[in-house]
Amino acid sequence: MARGWESKAVEDQINAREDPSNTNLKTTLTPVERQLRAKRESLLLARTRTVKAMETARDERYRFQLEQALAHLDDQLGQIGQS
User: Fold this and answer.
1) Greater confidence, 12 or 71?
2) pLDDT of 23-81, one tens digit each?
3) Distance of alpha carbon 54 from alpha carbon 58, whole angstroms
4) Spacing of C-alpha 65 from chain mean position
5) Are 76 and 43 in contact (CB under 8 A)?
6) 39-74 burial, b if ≥16 CB within 10 A, otherwise e?
7) What is the pLDDT of residue 46?
8) How far is CA 49 from CA 17, 28, 52, 57, 71, in A?
9) What is the DSSP string of 19-58?
10) Cα end-to-end distance, the chain, whole Å
11) For the chain, what are the domain ranges?
């Protein structure tokens, strides 16, 4: 039974490689686009981390810092979105 599954997986890999509509985004993006995408993903991760920290923050000064950081991250994301 495992042998049939392996041959099916190999067949799927061959079909996926031969399918022209299955283009790889990394090859179609310019270096600038890749850099912007990486920066956006990094900012989104930082935003997620900041939001999680705000959920558990008890000190008002720390919460204020997190709110400022969140506003800055949102501003940066907005600037990337406009590009």
Assistant:
1) 71
2) 554 568 889 999 999 999 999 999 999 999 999 999 999 999 999 999 999 999 999 98
3) 8
4) 25
5) yes
6) eeeebeebbeebeeeeeebeeeeeeeebeebbeebe
7) 96
8) 37, 30, 5, 12, 13
9) -TT---HHHHS-HHHHHHHHHHHHHHHHHHHHHHHHHH--
10) 52
11) 2-82
Rounded Cα–Cα distance for residues 22 and 79 (Å) = 31
- Encoded amino acid at 9, one letter: A
**Token couple for 61:** 């000064």
Is this prediction's pTM over 0.70? no
CA angle 10, 11, 12 (to 5 degrees): 90
**Which amino acid is it at 56?**
T
Tokens for 25? 């985004």
